[in-house]
Amino acid sequence: MNMSAVTCETFPEQKDAKTSRIGLIVPSSNTTMETELPELFRRQSEATGHHYTFHSARAALKNVNREELLAMVDKAGECARAVSDAAVDVIAYACLVAVMAQGPNSHEKSEKIIASAAEENGHPAAVSSSAGALVRTLQSIGARKVSMVAPYMLPLTQMVREYIEGAGIEVVDAISLEVDDNLAVGALDPQKLPMIAQGLNREGIDAVILSACVQMPSLPAVQKAEDLLGVPVITAATATAYEILKALGHEPSIAGAGGLLSGAYAPVASRRA
To answer: What CATH number is given for 19-131+238-265 in this structure?
Structure first.
C-alpha cells in the first residue's frame, strides 16, 4: 500500500481586512445571543460589505438565581482566555444580570478582568459587557428616565432596576415576567413584547428597555415596539451590538432593529456640538 504525507500549514490563517472577529462569553444555557447578534451583524454586512465572525466561550448557568450568577462571574477570566485564542478583535460578556448581581458599576471590574485575561493570553482585545453596554448606551442617547421589561423573578428585576438607577438613570416602571429557568426565558415569544411594553408607565420617559436580558428574545419586536411607542427602544442585545460596533470603529447601519442601530440616534455630545 502506498502512503503519502500531507503537509499542513502551521502558521495562523491571516484574517481578511474586511472581516472582524467577535468573541462572546455566554451562559451555557443561552440560546439567544448566538442567534440575534449574528443576524444583526448580517444586516450590518449587507449594508457595508464588512464581514463578522463569531467565536464563543460558555460558562455554566441553568437557573437565573444569585448563586448561579455569581458562580458564572468567577469563570469570566477563564472564558476570556479561551475565546481570545481565536485572536478576536472584541470580546462581549453577554450575561447582563450576572454582572449586575455583583452590585453597582460592577461592569467596570468585569470588563477589566476580561481585558487583562485576554492580554495575558497574548491576544489583547477590546471588551464590552451587556451590563455596561446597556447603561452606557442609555447615557449616550441622553436617556434620563426609562421603563423596562425583564424576564426575571421580582427580586432580580428589582436588582437590575437599582443597577440602572445607580448609573443615574431613573427607572419609572418595570414589568417582571417571573421566569427563572434560563432555557424557558429563551423560549419566550418576542412578538408579545410590544403589547407588554404598552402596559408600562411611560409618562415622561426617554426610552424603553424592551428586554433587560440577553437571553429573552426581542429582535423581531424592536422596530415594531419603537414604531408603536414613539420613543427609542433599546434591548440588552442591541446595546451590546452598538458597543461592539463602536469598539471596532464601525458606524451602525442595521435596518429593522430600532433607531439606535440604524444610526438615527447620534450620541448626546455629538448632538450638542
So the answer is: 3.40.50.12500
Q: Are 168 and 135 in contact (CB under 8 A)?
A: no
Asked if 120 contacts 181 with a C-beta cutoff of 8 angstroms, the reply is no
Segment 91-101 shows an average pLDDT of: 86
The yes-or-no answer to whether 19-131+238-265 and 133-235 have a common fold is: yes
Burial string for 54-73 (b: 16+ CB within 10 Å, else e) reads bbbbbbebeebbeebbeebb
Cα separations in angstroms, 37 against 9, 105, 202, 211, 238: 32, 24, 28, 14, 8
Query: Is 83 annotated among the ligand-binding residues?
Result: no
- pLDDT of 273 above 60: no
96 is in an annotated binding site: yes
Predicted structure pTM score: 0.89
The pLDDT of residue 180 is 84
Q: Which residues are catalytic?
A: 95, 213
Q: What pLDDT was estimated at residue 2?
A: 54
CA 178, distance to chain mean position in Å, is 21
* Structure confidence at residue 72 (pLDDT): 64
Q: Give the separation between CA 141 and CA 271, rounded to whole angstroms.
A: 9
Q: Flag whether 95 is marked binding.
A: yes
